[in-house]
Amino acid sequence: MQSSPVGIDRTSLLPPLKTWTWQDHRIAYREVGSQGPPLVLIHGFGASSIHWRKNFAQLSQQHRVWALDLLGFGASAKPREVAYTFDTWATQLEAFTEQVVGAPSLWVGNSIGCIVCLQAAVNRPDLVRGLSLLNCSLRLLHEKKRQSQPWIQQVGTPLVQKLLTQTPLGRVFFDRLRNPRALRKVLLQAYAQPEAVTDELINLLLEPALDEGALEVFLAFINYASGPLAEELLPKLNQQQCPVQFLWGEKDPWEPINLGRAYAAYPCVEEFIALPNAGHCPQDEVPELVNGHILRWAERVFGEK
Fold it and tell me: What is the CATH number of domain 11-303?
């Protein structure tokens, strides 16, 4: 199955932003579709609900679809006093599903969004029917994984994190990152298909990075080396209550598929599917392929319940 032509301006096809208040914070989300079981889409680090712009139309033909901007990202509030952790975002997803969606849902995550979905599923199994996880964050900089890294990384990673978060260097680094040329270089590393890194994508990702508070969110997260790992959360899920599907771009340089395949061994994981010609964000590179797998998985998790 081939992906749709890249370079098409899809912003006019985006569902309009809606807002919801959670813990006194303005939360942005998009909603499309009038019937069918509910899907909730959770983006990765630095992204937002717009990263699902190539998925809305096809998924909403059979489902009601929501895409949430996590606190600190997209058009959602970026308060300075909040702890930007997976516990925070999982609690947000749980409340959103309960208060806005109003029914147990299939949660679909990309990158760190996968950890958010896993944590929320462990916390509130009554709110989820299943998970579809795209290129799950392996959290290779987690403090528990440092002992397996070369000694230079064991020592250097905490030092760099401290320098970025406790000195002006962090602002300089962030300012250099949030410009079109630098962001394009980063995305060309993550995407297997360079033609998918369009001006449209660059502009959509850059806009929220210019918001007040975006720097603090960035610095808080890059210093976050604790919290849950997927391998700690997966054993806590019941296969009958919350079956898991993994979709993984074969050419992801950030979350290597050879490491991700270990997740297929957990009892709750029913599928691990490699996606050819895709990198870290397959929903944006091969959307029709991803949409097809999500729709088939949704039929399985909702059809048997």
Answer: 3.40.50.1820
CA distances in angstroms from 59 to 33, 90, 131, 155, 298, listed in the order given: 8, 23, 15, 45, 10
| pTM strictly above 0.70 | yes
- Residue, of 300 and 81, whose pLDDT is higher: 300
The string of pLDDT tens digits covering residues 97-116 is 999 999 999 999 999 999 99
State the Cα angle at 256 between 278 and 208, rounded to 5°: 65
Region of 24 (left: φ > 0; alpha: ψ -120 to 50; beta: rest) is left
Total length of the chain: 305
Place of tokens 């462990």: 122
Mean of all residue pLDDT scores within the chain: 89
- CB-count exposure of residue 61 (10 Å: 0-12, 13-18, 19+): middle
- Are 252 and 225 contacting, i.e. CB atoms less than 8 angstroms apart? no
Q: What is the DSSP letter of 2?
A: P
